[in-house]
Amino acid sequence: MGQTLGCVQVDQSTVAMKEQFGKFDNVLEPGCHCLPWCIGYQLAGSLSLRVQQLDVRCETKTKDNVFVTVVASIQYRALAEKAADAFYKLSNTKEQIQAYVFDVIRASVPKLDLDSTFEQKNDIAKAVEDELEKAMSAYGYEIVQTLIVDIEPDAQVKRAMNEINAAARLRVAATEKAEAEKILQIKRAEGEAESKYLSGLGIARQRQAIVDGLRDSVLAFSENVPGTSAKDVMDMVLVTQYFDTMKEIGASSKSSAVFIPHGPGAVKDIATQIREGLLQAESVSH
């Protein structure tokens, strides 16, 4: 806005107050205007019609006695049709708005506990906006929007809240870990039981196969060699297996020293023990 030789220029989104001899005369719109100063006309000042923002920090206490700092962001603008009221009725618009914000927040937050304050911040913003709209409209201002942009508890309270949250999460994690370990142990036990069951079946089938093979060998040898009894054939088979076992033990590079009785009498005793064990296994399997 400029003034030269009685002509003034009002910028866009701005209005100017025209006075004559100190009395309000008219609101000047954006553009060029003639103000003959010789007859008492002058500009008292200008007023921006743009949307402005004011951030207000208000410290208050919640219902559960926790001090918090509430940060409210107020967006407002002067109304062109009430420009004279906005210019002349308020000496400091920002301080006036701040006073109303303090009043509403300090009346609303003490009714809520800390958690509810976070949950109902939109309700707090709506209460601030309604109160400001009702109060500031009389002064020619419009409240465009009110936001509660932050709620800051005391540092010790924030630390305590974080510790509570961390402890709860650790408790859940420990429960889940214990449940996982329980499932692993159950599955491991089930696997071991199934393994032992299948191993038992394998051993039983192996013994049955040995018994069947020996029986077939005894019968075939008795038929092909006349005059031999089943006992003679069994003794010969057992002695042959005994010597095969001795050969394998001696040929193994990783075998330890094994002391067993050896001789005709010892071989006879071993044959008798093996034969009795196989006969008992055969009787049990049948």
Structure description:
With 286 residues, the protein is an alpha+beta fold. It has helices spanning 83-88, 93-108, 114-119, 121-136, 155-224, 230-251, 264-285, and strands at residues 2-4, 7-10, 14-20, 23-28, 31-34, 41-48, 52-61, 67-78, 141-153. The strands form three sheets. It has a three-stranded antiparallel sheet, with no helix packed on it. Strands 4-3-6 form a three-stranded antiparallel sheet. A hairpin with a 5-residue loop joins strand 7 (52-61) and strand 8. Helix 2 (93-108) packs across helix 4. The protein is rod-shaped, with a radius of gyration of 52 Å. The model has no long low-confidence stretch (mean pLDDT 81). InterPro entries: Band7/mec-2_domain, Band_7, Band_7/SPFH_dom_sf. Pfam families: Band_7. Residues 5-165 form the Band domain. This is Band 7 domain-containing protein.
Spell out the key features of this protein:
alpha+beta; three-stranded antiparallel beta sheet; 7 helices; about 55% helix; Band7/mec-2_domain
